[in-house]
Amino acid sequence: MEVDLYSTDWTHSAESSCLPLIDETSALGTQAPKDRLIAVLDQVELRVERLRRDTVRIEEEKDSLLSTLDSIKHSELLTDISECDKDDITRYADRILARALTVEVAVRTDRDQQQEEALHQVNMYIDQLVMSVHEDAVVAHARCQTYMNACTSQPDPGSGTDKNFESAILGCTLDDQKRVKKRLQGLLEYFAKLNVTTYS
Prior knowledge:
Layout: E1 2-4, E2 21-23, H1 33-73, H2 83-100, H3 113-132, H4 137-150, H5 163-170, H6 174-193
Antiparallel strand pairs: 1-2
């Protein structure tokens, strides 16, 4: 059994990231069959982890694009243009949004019942936060920072930590904690674009 890990047309681009080709009809060589099979599985495991990392990166890119489209659709710049131009911008953004939503990527994380409940609670907190942005961006920003403080060992000294959110996030898997932290970081960057930086 031969494993062709680096064929002549191999590149590191996403387009050519195919799994190793396995030829089971070839000789086993000097290694014992079990050792050869384990070597193949080791390589496949590395590729699976790389696939998961790439998929998470694509998920984050999609979230970033959706956030940008949302900020455009609610931009104050829309108040400075005519209704006709505003309609053009809105239709353009909606068309891109529809295309973006045709892309579905997901990395499933194994969770027990308590971890599922904890993640559901965390998502509920963040969804409520997102819904409150357009009502009072300053308050929403302050709350977002307290959520972020719950996810880091070096919290922002200028704001506190939401203990309820902290309790929920600690019940999540490590993968979920990392995703939530990145999601909150994206929200804080969104607030920065809105020039919402202080709570009064």
